[in-house]
Structures are given as C-alpha cells and as structure tokens.
Amino acid sequence: MTISFDFDETFTAAPELFASVMDVFRAAGWMVIVCTRRGDQRRPTAESVIDDRFAGSVPVVRARGIPKWQAAREAGFEVDVWVDDDPGSVLGMPNLIPRRS
Ligand SMILES: [Mg+2]
C-alpha cells in the first residue's frame, strides 16, 4: 500500500507528529511519499525538510500545475491513501473546499 502526505498545512502543521505517523506506516511496510504543490523557489524546500528527517528515504513528488494523482503516477507511484489539507489538489481542483475566513 502507498500513502501520500501533503507538505504545506499538513506535514508543516505538526511536523514531528506527522513524521511519527509516517514512521508507523513505514514500519508497517507501507510506501510513504510526500506530494506537494510547493515550488522549488520557496525555502525551505519540501525536499530539504523531508530529506533531513528521513535521510532521503521518503520520496517527494512535486505537482506543479497538474493534479497530484497525475504527478504521483508520472513519478511511478500509485497512491492508495491521500492525506491532504486540500483534497481538491489531488484531483487538480485546489481550494475546492472553501476555507473559513
Ligand atoms: Mg497543503
């Protein structure tokens, strides 16, 4: 099974909590990836944060301008479970669910 975690406002909302959860899935044999719409201009990059925590063992997939499901598939991952604060971004419809102001 493969599970994808979003980066901004998901992993970054509680980095150590999510890192611990990701460790649990990895220990159970799941493939864990991070799929993000964050571009490479924004610092720190998702790759640097995730690589620091997981020593390069958690792949980071960038989905710039395309749906996350497509970016993941193009990177060779068929994701079974998505964990994302913006579920519409998985389908290529970011901000589909209006945020409270
Ligand atoms: Mg997010």
Short description:
The chain is of the alpha/beta class and 101 residues long.
Key attributes of the depicted protein:
binds magnesium ion; 101 residues
Major sheet strand order: 3-2-1-4
Q: What is the average per-residue confidence, as pLDDT, rounded to a whole number?
A: 95
Main structural class: alpha/beta
Beta content: 15-25%
Write down the secondary-structure element order.
EHEHEHEH
Low-confidence stretches: none
Beta-strand segment tally: 4
Shape: globular
Question: Which compounds are bound in this model?
Answer: magnesium ion
Give the secondary structure arrangement, pairings included.
Blueprint lengths: L1 E4 L9 H13 L3 E6 L9 H9 L5 E3 L5 H7 L6 E3 L4 H4 L10
Parallel strand pairs: 1-2, 1-4, 2-3
This protein binds magnesium ion.
The site of magnesium ion has 6 residues, from loops.
